[in-house]
Design a protein that fits this description.
With 366 residues, the protein is α/β, with parallel strands linked by helices. The protein folds into 2 domains: 9-99, Orthogonal Bundle (Arc Repressor Mutant, subunit A); 160-358, Rossmann fold (3-Layer(aba) Sandwich), CATH 3.40.50.150. The protein is built from 15 helices and 10 strands. Strands 6-5-4-7-8-10-9 form a 7-stranded mixed beta sheet, with helices on both faces. α11 links the parallel β4 (183-187) and β5. α2 (22-34) packs across α5, α10 packs parallel to α11 and α13 (264-277) packs across α15 (323-332). The structure holds S-adenosylmethionine. One of its GO terms (biological process) is methylation. Residues 15-80 form the BVU-1015-like N-terminal dimerisation-like domain.
Length: 366
């Protein structure tokens, strides 16, 4: 789904200026939200408020209030109410910036995690490395950094990650547990969020989480808090070391928002290692957000916008993939997709894969 093309030169010129001034627009919207300007206008309703009233409500200077409000006329956050130019009222876009949870989390993620580092996009593209990560320190990828990033950055990173996966987990759980897996391998299981939900869903399942040591420390704390130490085990691993075999003996392997963290070449290697660890009756579940499976432009925009975080901050070589790209890797790794379901939660697709040699001939995806 593409952005509608502007139908006049002036529209195209305006669209181009929105790009030219995008960082300013972004910061204005964020400050209007955080400093209570949008809240003050929301309370005023359709009659709106004067700049002086907003300044009074928020404690901002008249200069600051007027500057923010006037710019926001052009940025679509406010409009004039009534005949004159004295009263300002909040627009629908302003209401979304103020109240919509996804928008809030996306903005915090962009500001706290991506904003400064994005200046290094050129360098990231040139070298295939996450050049923007240097604003926080020296690591090969964001995943080694995650456990030690500043608290606000961690908070926004996890809020972003969890917003999307939390929306899909409750829908995925009954589908995965239809087959009552007894042993489940959660590859890239992060802080144990899925593993904990699996154990709450099915009292007989045992889960092993594979991840980097920093994430497993957080996972251990969470698992302990839930009293699940006997049922959830963490195994530290660098999944980019393709000489390390995956542990065997699992009924189900699970990869959620995980393949997106790797280049296509690494995805292929990881899937081959999954294949090698699977018994004939084992299944591999892949839960991910594919931009070619979305039904609205909002979701596509969010995915394409998030893609560059991988380029510049996360690893320098992955992106938000299309389902077509991931399915090609799955096939090449000797696996087949035997069932797939779109539109779980906010934007996810769930793929159920099996070893090609074990799949029933002629079986169709359900
Ligand atoms: C985007 S998070 C997804 C977490 C979780 N599965 C979910 O759905 O919310 C990707 C996870 O993969 C892990 N990961 C990335 N690169 C890794 C590597 N080289 N070795 C081990 N784990 C890695 C990260 O630490 C992180 O926990």
């Amino acid at each position: 789904m593409n952005e509608p093309a502007p139908n006049s030169t002036l529209d195209a010129m305006l669209a181009a200026q929105r790009i030219a001034f995008a960082p300013v627009m972004f910061q204005v919207a964020r400050v209007m939200r955080n400093r209570g300007v949008l809240r003050s206008l929301q309370r005023a309703g359709r009659h709106g408020k004067t700049a002086a009233d907003v300044a009074n409500d928020t404690g901002l200077s008249t200069y600051a209030t007027k500057t923010l409000l006037e710019a926001s006329l052009s940025f679509g956050l406010v409009e004039h109410a009534g005949e004159g130019r004295e009263q300002y009222r909040i627009t629908r876009t302003g209401l979304i910036i103020e109240n919509d949870r996804m928008t809030r989390i996306n903005m915090d993620f962009i500001h706290d995690v991506c904003y400064e580092g994005m200046r290094f996009l050129d360098e990231a593209i040139e070298g295939g490395k996450p050049a923007g990560l240097k604003v926080f320190g020296e690591w090969p990828t964001v995943y080694e950094a995650l456990a030690t990033l500043p608290p606000k950055v961690r908070e926004s990173w996890f809020a972003f990650d969890h917003l999307y996966s939390d929306s899909a987990f409750p829908v995925a759980l009954p589908l995965v547990f239809e087959r009552r897996p007894r042993r489940l391998l959660d590859i890239g299981g992060n802080t144990g969020r899925w593993a904990i939900q699996c154990c709450a869903h099915d009292p007989d399942v045992h889960v092993t989480v594979l991840d980097l040591p920093g994430q497993l420390e957080d996972a251990r704390e969470n698992v302990t808090r839930h009293g699940l130490l006997g049922r959830i085990t963490g195994t530290p691993i660098d999944l980019l070391d393709h000489t390390q075999a995956f542990p065997t003996g699992y009924d189900a392997l699970w990869m959620s928002q995980f393949l997106v963290c790797f280049s296509e070449a690494d995805i292929l290697q990881i899937l081959r290692r999954a294949h090698a660890a699977m018994a004939d009756d084992a299944v591999l579940w892949i839960l991910d957000t594919f931009w070619d499976r979305q039904t609205n432009g909002v979701a596509v925009h969010c995915l394409h916008g998030s893609s560059l975080y991988f380029t510049c901050l996360a690893n320098g070589n992955s992106r938000m993939y299309s389902a077509a790209d991931i399915k090609r890797c799955i096939e090449e790794a000797g696996l087949v997709v035997e069932a797939e379901r779109d539109h779980l939660g906010l934007a996810h697709t769930l793929l159920r894969c099996r070893k090609r040699e074990a799949a029933a001939p002629g079986r169709r995806a359900g």
